[in-house]
Amino acid sequence: MEKDASAPDPSRQRNGFSGVLYGEFADALNDELRYSVSLTESALTVQRISSSPDRTKVAFNLSDCVGCRSHTGPDTSAYFTAYFYPMKRRWMSAGLARQRVEQCFRVAPAQDPLVNLREAERWAHAIRDASERLAPRRDGVACTKLRRPCRTMILVNPHSGRGQALQLFTGHIQAMLTEADVPYTLVITEHQNHARELVRNADLSQWDALVIMSGDGLLFEVINGLMEREDWQQAIKTPLGILPGGSGNALAASLHHYSQSPPAWNEELLLSCGFMLCKGLVGPLDLVSVHLASGQRLFSFLSLAWGFVADVDIESEKYRHVGAIRFLMGTLVRLASLRVYQGRLAYLPAKEEPKPQTENAKATSTRHPPSLSSPPPGHVAPDASPKQRGSLNNRIDTNLNQNSFTNTSDVITNMRPETQSNNKTTSPVDSLLPGLDQPVPDNWTVVNEEDFVLVLAIYQSHLAEDLWTVPGATADDGLIHLFYVTAGISRPALLRLFLAMEKGSHLACGCPHLVYEKVRAVRLEPTSQQGMITVDGEVVEYGPIQAQIHPGMANLIRG
Ligand code: ADP
Ligand code: MG
Q1: Top-confidence residue, 405 or 435
Q2: pLDDT score for 142
Q3: Is the pLDDT of residue 365 over 60?
Q4: What is the average pLDDT across 301-313?
Q5: By CB atoms within 10 Å of each CB, which of 141, 153, 229, 255 scores lowest?
Q6: Does ligand 1 lie within 6 Å of residue 323's CB atom?
């Protein structure tokens, strides 16, 4: 079926609008069905041309569009297809979630296939252009856009979650990235710390974004790998993305929440994060610098936990196969053997302006240089030996539209030289922290209590997909949200808190054992002989630990 007209609307042009098109096209599958299609700066409006009264107009918001592609047909015609992921009512259950809608039109006004293809390309280009210009705006957040085309490295942990991260990627994300013309290279991790080693040594000039498809643990590896580089200051600014494929997807759930979307889980959450990646908005992400008693330093984007929360996180690893619900199962099991943990807690309240650093404190921090070279306990020692580098060949090279990543030998050329001693830069200074062996400064608050059920320092809104722990948190609020629960809380009261957390209403429970403070730095000194401390859900060395926030140190792909 032919296109009858396709021209810029003159009245719109007079008003200074650009990129406004009108045309009439046939349905991609049925020549009898014809549509009038108009493109404005904010919507693609499709109306069926029919003699019957049914002339329903459907407007697709371009802010929901990830891309538009054109191609030739089997005859002289051409096609263009626009891909939308609007919020739609769920099938069978309440609420809204992003769902894929494709609009494909047949262009055939001319005998010459090239003329038709050019017309289809013109529409596809205009739709892409208008969608990109319509980037969502987040008030108060200084967002930028990813470079186009965005050369993306996607790291997949095949063992994360229920062991289906790769299948989830191919089933839900791969096509979307093609629709959005995002060229990517998939790297399947082979062992713990593989991603960490890889980003530590990669030539980052080859990548516009580093994305992980896993749980929070793989992003922890990537961030620490970037911070271990001599050029960490630039490296950590590489836009980072997360596609939830693990059983602990707290950052993905937080990002989804920051995008002001109604709650989503599992594949819906994945689709939402895939959509954000395609839209390519980048905003700042706070990092927290964590010091352990051994002198080791880590960088964290999510949480530092001790007591109940850390125990549940680690003990529930054995229920990994059930997915995100493992935390609820772990909570119930742990409640049965609820225990009290002894230790000292101190923090720098957020309202306190940091004191100018004393010479003493400066000297202390020099005496305790942050160790960026050693991995945290429980992690496999980094080994960038040639043998291991060779193992990077397991990556799947995918080139979508552009032939930029077809050569597997670029695995080696992608590696940065191991040492660059000439332009070594110092690691970030933690100006709020004295040495761990020094007393905390006067402007810190020392908690009177020494018997705790849990201590949780969190810097995102969600601790897990269904644990909305900090209702007011944003990715870059410059705050550590410190929660602690003191001994004496009953089992039912603790369970009530966690159940209320699903709706973010735990602070309204009136529980006298729950304390919440906004802080910039925190120190924890456990005195109980045994226990577990986790950073971003990963076990770290048990013992004194302190941390401080670094506002907006990293960049995150967000909605
Ligand atoms: P989950 O949310 O399911 O726990 P994570 O992404 O947190 O998923 O990964 C769990 C752990 O697996 C992390 O400690 C991570 O460093 C580690 N890891 C990453 N890649 C691999 C791999 N290929 N094999 C084994 N462990 C891995
Ligand atoms: Mg994890």
Answers
A1: 435
A2: 76
A3: no
A4: 97
A5: 141
A6: no
Residue 33's contacts (CB-CB under 8 Å, 6 or more residues apart) are 26, 27, 48
Instruction: Give the confidence band of 134 by pLDDT, cuts at 50, 70, 90.
Output: confident
Instruction: Please name the residue that has the structure tokens 């620490």.
Output: 224
According to the model, what pLDDT value does residue 360 have? 38
Domains of the chain: 10-133 (2.30.29.30), 144-285+390-423 (3.40.50.10330), 300-355+428-549 (2.60.200.40)
- The pLDDT > 70 percentage for the chain reads 82
Q: How close is the Cα of 160 to the center of ligand 1, in Å?
A: 5
Answer whether 224 contacts ligand 1 (Cβ < 6 A).
no
Burial class of residue 114, CB neighbours in 10 A (0-12, 13-18, 19+): exposed
Beta bridge partners of 414: none
- pLDDT band for position 136 (50/70/90)? low
Active site residues: 216
> Which string of DSSP letters, residue by residue, matches 229-250?
STTHHHHTTS-EEEEE-SS--H
- Cβ neighbours, 10 Å, residue 5: 9
Which atom number of ligand 1 is nearest to the Cα of residue 190? 23
